[in-house]
Amino acid sequence: MFDGLKKKLNRFRNDVEETAEEKAEAAADEAETEADAEAESAPADAAVEPEASEPSDADSVGDADADSEADAVDDVPADAEPATDADTAPEQAAATAEGEPEPEPATAAVDEQMADEPAADADEPEPAPDEAEPRESLASDAAKAALAEEDDDSSGPGRLRRAAAFATGKVVIEEEDLEDPLWELEMALLQSDVEMQVAEEILETIREKLIGETRKQVQSTGQLVSEALHDALYEVISVGQFDFDQRIAEADKPVTLIFTGINGVGKTTTIAKLAKYFEKQGYSTVLANGDTYRAGANEQIREHAEALGKKLIAHEQGGDPAAVIYDGVEYAEAHDIDIVLGDTAGRLHTSNDLMAQLEKIDRVVGPDLTLFVDEAVAGQDAVERARQFNDAAAIDGAILTKADADSNGGAAISIAYVTGKPILFLGVGQGYDHIEKFDPEQMVERLLGEDE
């Protein structure tokens, strides 16, 4: 059932997923290229930085001198008295007596400091062999840290690649990603006999659901598309839905159902199927043949009534349909029957006299529900007829026959949206049990399920 449309919907899902995945792969390749470029430029930058920060020789000498002076000051005992000019005078005189020229005032302090440095160095003991080991250990640790840092740098592109790969798990779906798949979907829907207005509504809902949507890490693009398709289809299929069984249970008895539509779509067989359906629900039924114009109509419905063991109310050919159905209601009231199922003559919406009969039935009988019956395989013709019947004499719901033979599903998708009235049942075979209560959710799941 609806296999043709199902395949087309799955094709749309696959097309969008393929487009999004190609986009994600392109983004991943771009991110990887950028990561490789950054990794190649990183060593050059690292080589420049040490040269800029390396201290000059002059700075090193200045720092050493400053440290020596600080050490010399620290070595002076706290109780030592500062040297006086009188103490230093003999030393100067001795130096002069030896014939050395007297130093210039500007350089005397420097020479004096240089003369003191060897003595200071001599006083400091040479480091023991054991004391050099910590320096080697420190150097080793530094080397290990440098190697580890190089490893981290070399693994940078790898981390970026993984990050890019992770980022590709989040795909933003943009309008251009959907342009071609949506066009293909529109053609597929129209070819499946989905009414134009309904197809446009489905496409618009999909756009709203998908454009700008970000695929989460745990989701696939196919899941996002499936959710959007689900919502779009459900919104058009479920229009006007109500609980049919609850409506029957709560209505005053007898409940009167009138069936209308054109000839040859299975109205009479559908009445027989619903008689069996209600019997399973515990309701009693009576059949009333309001199709008084068609030759052989009485015989056809009588066969069904006898096969099911149901009472049939019928008049002679050419009688008043409203009168027949009214007699059916009277019989139900007199015999405590729960439900009256009234057949009517097949007609087109342009048959003014027959449409006038429906209006008369409505006035005389006041049916609880008027149900439109047509073939699912009729596609857009069924949709158009449903619209016209609803405009001429308001219907309360629709039943689609031969749904098991319908590959397209256009009528099943479109009728509720076009008329604002729900599909209530699907005929799925010739047997009396071959009727399914229509479930919009089940219908959508059937259309979006995996191909068998």
Folded structure, characterized:
The chain is of the alpha/beta class and 452 residues long. It is built from 17 helices and 8 strands. It has helices at residues 3-53, 57-75, 85-97, 105-123, 129-154, 156-167, 175-191, 196-210, 221-237, 244-250, 267-281, 297-308, 321-334, 352-364, 380-392, 410-419, 440-448; strands spanning 255-260, 285-290, 311-313, 339-344, 369-375, 397-401, 423-427, 435-437. It has an 8-stranded mixed β-sheet, with helices on both faces.
What keyword list fits this structure?
452 residues, alpha/beta, 17 helices, 8 strands
Percent range for helical residues? 55-70%
Biggest beta sheet attributes: 8 strands, mixed
Structural class: alpha/beta
How many helices? The count is: 17
In percent terms, what proportion of residues is strand?
Answer: 5-15%
Q: Report how far apart the termini are.
A: 12 Å
Strand order of the largest sheet: 3-2-4-1-5-6-7-8
Query: Oligomeric form of this entry?
Result: single chain
Instruction: Work out the number of β strands.
Output: 8
Which geometry do the CA atoms define? elongated
User: What low-confidence regions span 5 or more consecutive residues with pLDDT below 50?
Assistant: 51-62, 64-123, 127-140, 142-169
**Overall pLDDT, averaged?**
75
Order of helical and strand elements: HHHHHHHHHHEHEHEHEHEHEHEEH
Q: What is the CA-atom radius of gyration, in angstroms?
A: 48 Å
